[in-house]
Amino acid sequence: MKPKKITILGSSHVYALMGGVDSTVQNMYTHKLLQDFSGMHNVVCDDDPPTLRDDVAEWIKNSLDADYLLLSISGSDWLAFCASNREPKIDIALPDHPELAQIPNARLIPLAEMRQAMTHRIRHVLRGITALRQSVAPHIPIWYICSPPPVEDNELVRGTVTFAAEIARHGVTDPILRLKMYLLHSMIVSDTCTANGLPFILPPNETTSGQGYLALDCVGTDCFHANGQYGRYVIRDIER
């Protein structure tokens, strides 16, 4: 069978995915970083309905040469809600995950309220999915690659420069809140993918612990990113 040309469009999570491309793969992979465009992580204009920024639209029209387009355009925005243990301490309950315990002495935020806040924060991602599907030729399938799960290790979060000052003041949050916020983020992105006809590719089973956190052999150098081992598992599943 002739190898397929597969392009991965995204930001820093792309590096782990491309790290999984080795001599065993059957298809041809290239990548395009969102940082190459004027809007950085935001591929859309502010108008409604969402339209792509001119340089993104030009890249699709003149440079995208792919049989499949894989998207990894969401980062770890959910961490903004759950990196530090600032007051008031919060928690959410996910009906689809009753196994996730409630955090003691935390204020339970209604899920609808938290979903609205998360949706607003990642609106550029959701609008980007819609605009990309409308702009990329219909004969090119688009698959969305879910972001890596959160790390369980609080020390890795504590050592991440982005949150160091805030965590020094407030402490680091319970890992279970990171897992809940990640799952909510993934549900919101998945719903937008479904509405636009995009398969939403979940992390392979080998990349998660029994509790749902990022497996130790897949953890990158900070609390945001996975590593090449994670990428190898993801690419393996795509190759299937």
Describe this structure in words.
The chain is α/β, with parallel strands linked by helices. The chain has one domain: Rossmann fold (3-Layer(aba) Sandwich). 37% of the residues lie in helices and 11% in strands. It is built from 8 helices and 7 strands; from the N terminus they run E-H-E-H-E-E-E-H-H-E-H-H-H-E-H. The protein has helices spanning 13-19, 54-62, 111-121, 123-135, 154-158, 161-170, 175-195, 228-239; strands at 5-10, 28-33, 68-72, 90-91, 107-108, 142-145, 200-201. The strands form 2 sheets. The protein has a 5-stranded parallel beta sheet with strand order 2-1-3-6-7. It has a two-stranded parallel ribbon with strand order 4-5. Helix 1 crosses helix 8 and helix 4 packs parallel to helix 7. It is globular. The two termini are 13 Å apart.
Question: SSE layout and pairings?
Answer:
Layout: E1 5-10, H1 13-19, E2 28-33, H2 54-62, E3 68-72, E4 90-91, E5 107-108, H3 111-121, H4 123-135, E6 142-145, H5 154-158, H6 161-170, H7 175-195, E7 200-201, H8 228-239
Parallel strand pairs: 1-2, 1-3, 3-6, 4-5, 6-7
Summary?
By secondary structure, the protein is α/β, with parallel strands linked by helices. The protein is built from eight helices and seven strands.
Structural class by SSE content: alpha/beta
CA radius of gyration: 18 Å
The portion of residues forming beta strands comes to 5-15%
Q: Roughly what percent helix?
A: 25-40%
